[in-house]
Amino acid sequence: MKIPMSPPKLTEIMLKSKPSDLIRIMDIVSSSLVKDRYLHWDELRYRKPPEGCTLEEWWVGLKLRRLAMVKSIPLCDKHGDNFLFTQPDPVLEALYNITLGAGGSIEIPTEITEQEKDRYYFTSLIEEAITSSQLEGASTTRDAAKEMLRTNRPPRDHSEQMILNNFQTMKRIGELRYEDLDTALVFEIHRIITEGTLSDSKASGQFRTQNEDIKVWTEKGLLLHSPPPASELPDRMKIMCDFANGKTPDTFVHPALRAIILHFWLAYDHPFNDGNGRTARALFYWSMLRSDFWLFEFISISSIIRKAPAQYTRSFLYTESDDNDLTYFVLGQIKVIMKAMEELVQYVKRKTKQVRAMEAELRGVEVLNHRQKALISHALRHPQHRYSIESHKRSHNVVYQTARSDLLNMVARSLLMKSKIGRRLYFSPVPDLNEKLAVLG
For residue 338, how far is the Cα from the chain centroid? Predict the structure, then answer.
């Protein structure tokens, strides 16, 4: 990870400039954006400035345009300076689209909402649990992690424990969405996230201490972030919770923007000796669900972040290096959110096609319920797959007896074969499943 170059100091450049120069620069630089992008100095310095001004003057013009629409939040850096944000057109447009899509309605076919909602909810929890853990170093395979969560087996190692913890956290976040945030609740979330993964179990759900020199480094040993002193954490956490609950600031902050800033806030303060990134993303979900952005039960932001982790880190660094301007982090997370929402839309399109194909395959088979039809449709495409009562139960969010009855009923109809390994029952598709379905139909 390359550390971005810090911008030149605005005050120093302005002291060297005449008032007429500033008027000329403002006439040339009419927007805070560069071709619809909110560029950091580290990006701008490679570009050709507009005719009539130098590169540094161009930067001054952009900064002055940004300062004209800046808003402050109660988060302060280690020097007591507030963090700020602006809302250029790309932010406003994205916030509108998030409100429309995540808090309003998304066109999901009836059969998807009825038959696949619970299944996709469970799948999205798994995806977020795995990728959020992988961002923090978990190294188990996706197949092993999915198998653990679907069958409810105990984790085998540290990585699987991280994933299980994240899974449990995401489920708990759904239950906590309408509770006000306070320090005790943040500690509860951190305890779930870190259970059984810390070298010192007492550090779970506790602030880092003054004796712990917590810093964020690159793999090559470059310092990325040095958080505020541990002695300040109780007060800082109280201020963060007030912000999260909508008590501050006095000006309006869009709920999605508030959730994004809360994500940054926890990560910046880094209140724990481990698990800060996962806790920050969990609080983002809490905030979005609290604001009735229901779609966020079904999407994974960590899966998008993991595809471009350097961009995620860079958005933190741009913010800290340019006068605490949160707009860089906001824009970075907005891109993540929009991509995650788009992936859900694409999933719905694929699933609609699959469901219609399944209905064509199983047309006339009225003796099977929608859970059994979903399993049979999967079995037709994966003839070697094994199913268990526990995996069927968790995939469809039903009780054990319902899952057991579904599977035994399909055994009785000669669609599945039953076997026993140890004390656990497994179910596999019969070799001539297509023929059996034809007879059943």
Answer: 11
Q: Is the distance from CB of 72 to CB of 84 less than 8 angstroms?
A: yes
Specify the pLDDT at position 374.
Answer: 87
Integer CA distances (angstroms), 69 to 89, 91, 93, 269, 318, in order: 12, 13, 16, 26, 19
pLDDT in tens, 109-119: 554 544 456 76
Distances (CA, A) of 15 to 10, 12, 18, 20, 53: 9, 5, 8, 13, 16
**3 state DSSP class of 211:** coil
Q: Which domains does the chain have, with CATH numbers?
A: 10-68 (no CATH), 74-346 (1.10.3290.10), 364-440 (1.10.10.10)
Residue 55, token pair as written in the block: 């590169």
Residue owning tokens 């993964």:
197
Helix (H) or strand (E) run with residue 224 in it: strand 223-225
Structure tokens, 104 = 């309003």
Q: In the predicted model, what is the mean pLDDT of the chain?
A: 91
Helix (H) or strand (E) holding 85: strand 82-85
Residue pLDDT, tens place only, 378-413? 888 788 899 999 999 999 999 999 999 999 999 999
Query: Taking the model in full, what pTM does it have?
Result: 0.83
> What whole-number distance in Å separates Cα of residue 6 and Cα of residue 4?
6
The token pair at 263 is: 């994500």
Output the pLDDT for position 277. 95
* Contact (Cβ atoms closer than 8 angstroms) between residue 407 and residue 393: no
Helix or strand (DSSP H, E) at 415: none
How many whole angstroms from its chain centre is CA 35? 28
Amino acid symbol at 135: L
Minimal CA–CA distance to 396: which of 372, 418, 368, 376? 372
* Short-list 39, 32, 89, 88, CA closest to 61: 32
Strands of 64-168, DSSP E: 71-76, 82-85
CA–CA gap between residue 9 and residue 181 (Å, rounded): 37
CA distances from 312 to 267, 304, 318, 332 (A): 12, 10, 10, 7
Cβ pair 84, 324 in contact under 8 A? yes
Taking the CA atoms of the chain, what radius of gyration do you get in angstroms? Answer: 26
Angstrom distance (rounded) from CA 58 to CA 40:
12
Is the torsion defined by CA of 91, 95, 96, 100 positive or negative? positive
